[in-house]
What we know:
Belongs to the zinc-containing alcohol dehydrogenase family. Class-III subfamily. This is Alcohol dehydrogenase superfamily. Residues 218-348 form the Alcohol dehydrogenase-like C-terminal domain. One of its GO terms (cellular component) is cytosol. By secondary structure, this protein is α/β, with parallel strands linked by helices. It has two domains: 4-181 and 359-396, Quinone Oxidoreductase, Chain A, domain 1, CATH 3.90.180.10; 192-336, NAD(P)-binding Rossmann-like Domain (Rossmann fold, 3-Layer(aba) Sandwich), CATH 3.40.50. It contains twelve helices and 19 strands. The protein has helices at 4-14, 64-71, 118-122, 182-189, 191-202, 218-229, 242-250, 267-273, 292-298, 322-326, 345-353, 372-379; strands spanning 19-20, 23-31, 39-45, 52-61, 80-81, 85-93, 105-108, 146-148, 151-155, 165-169, 173-176, 210-214, 234-238, 255-257, 282-285, 306-309, 330-333, 363-368, 386-390. The strands form three sheets. Strands 4, 6, 7, 10, 11, 18 and 19 form a seven-stranded mixed beta sheet that branches. Strand 18 (363-368), helix 12 and strand 19 form a beta-alpha-beta unit. Helix 4 crosses helix 5 and helix 5 (191-202) runs parallel beside helix 6 (218-229).
Amino acid sequence: xxxxxxxxxxxxxxxxxxxxxxxxxxxxxxxxxxxxxxxxxxxxxxxxxxxxxxxxxxxxxxxxxxxxxxxxxxxxxxxxxxxxxxxxxxxxxxxxxxxxxxxxxxxxxxxxxxxxxxxxxxxxxxxxxxxxxxxxxxxxxxxxxxxxxxxxxxxxxxxxxxxxxxxxxxxxxxxxxxxxxxxxxxxxxxxxxxxxxxxxxxxxxxxxxxxxxxxxxxxxxxxxxxxxxxxxxxxxxxxxxxxxxxxxxxxxxxxxxxxxxxxxxxxxxxxxxxxxxxxxxxxxxxxxxxxxxxxxxxxxxxxxxxxxxxxxxxxxxxxxxxxxxxxxxxxxxxxxxxxxxxxxxxxxxxxxxxxxxxxxxxxxxxxxxxxxxxxxxxxxxxxxxxxxxxxxxxxxx
Length: 397
């Protein structure tokens, strides 16, 4: 796959599903209730609205947040098409869309960027006022572009990538070079970029500094790589799995701590043991395990330590060690690692294209959309890191 023309002709001309008044009938993995097995269903995907783009997905991947949406009944958006990591080719665009055309390779994001609101102009955050994270499961006008047997389907965020086709507002899309490896594009669409951005954009890791990373999944390894590229001299990874520590070392990690190896000390104490008793300059909580939040906070230096919370935590409320916080430390939450889709994501894509970022080692499993429920089983396996979801056309993986 070396050019957008090749992708466009191959996918748009030879594999187009049935049409009916610009409605596409295609397959999607539909979630009908919390924790229920997903069902591969025929759904209808409408034509894009004026500011929207309809995309044929080339491949997707599985993120921890997808699992949370699937398991937890507090979402209450059913039926829903899950998935928010992916890459696709533009099938059609609305009449007001000028930056994308049929055949473009695009990456969906769940964060928008208008470049005009107060937050976007500040360049200090990626929380756009005009294009916020869509938690309603609907488009900006309160409707959905997906349906099943006449019933409305919800989108996960602004995405819904576990479907052969989806529709998104153009402001939640970023163009990618047509030669980018599709699995790499999936990882960059959320997980890896979230970790990479947390070190780069949120913490602004300084040269010669020290870093602790709690959890060496796709997000945590993104933190490790960014910290190494930014010049951190001590990068401590924390994970239960030794093989993840090995992957971290290959990306620039200097020290590895397995929580099970020493039960006499807390993780924050063990991190201080390898930092001359002071702790680290920056810590990153990437696991979503609530009790590790305070360990991450306490592992940083008194007076100036910074902790970035990245992992999606099951609980909506978590107790914080007030004394640790009052000792001059900073605790900061982060979405998508502070990465602004239009201003910052192209830089990460460029690093992927010029081989500064080697992402092949992060992909451990692949499934086809028809076998999506197997991905949930694989996610629990000790050797699983990132799962790529294919759409039957295996030659594109």
